[in-house]
Amino acid sequence: MGATSIERIVRQSDYESPQAAYRALVEEAEYNYGHDPYNGTISTCELRGRIARPCNSAEYEEALDNIQKRDVHYYEDGHTWVFIGWAAC
Questions:
Q1: If you ran DSSP here, which 8-state letter would residue 52 be given?
Q2: In whole angstroms, how far apart are CA 46 and each of 13, 19, 37, 73, 75?
Q3: I need a labelling partner for 52 at 20 to 30 A (CA). Which of 8, 14, 19, 62 fits?
Q4: Which pLDDT tens digit goes with each residue over 1-48?
Q5: Among candidates 44, 47, 49, 46, which has minimal Cα distance to 4?
Q6: Number of H helices, E strands in the chain
Q7: Is the pTM of this model over 0.90?
């Protein structure tokens, strides 16, 4: 099976923690796309932790390249958390 890159951005003020935001994103994806383990959404991923905020597109691509399939990491960008990773599809 393959993988597709994902990026989800949420406002920090909407959640008590990045873990709570991740759980909400997973619940939303499961509601909208079901529980298929290859649905190409964040629901197929495990939250692995925080990474440094990329400063430009090259750093963003490098960060994404260093993430394993079915993993998602997050970084802070102002008042948002940005979740990036690779979802199974």
A1: P
A2: 23, 11, 12, 9, 15
A3: 14
A4: 689 999 999 999 999 999 999 999 999 999 999 999 999 999 999 999
A5: 44
A6: 2, 4
A7: yes
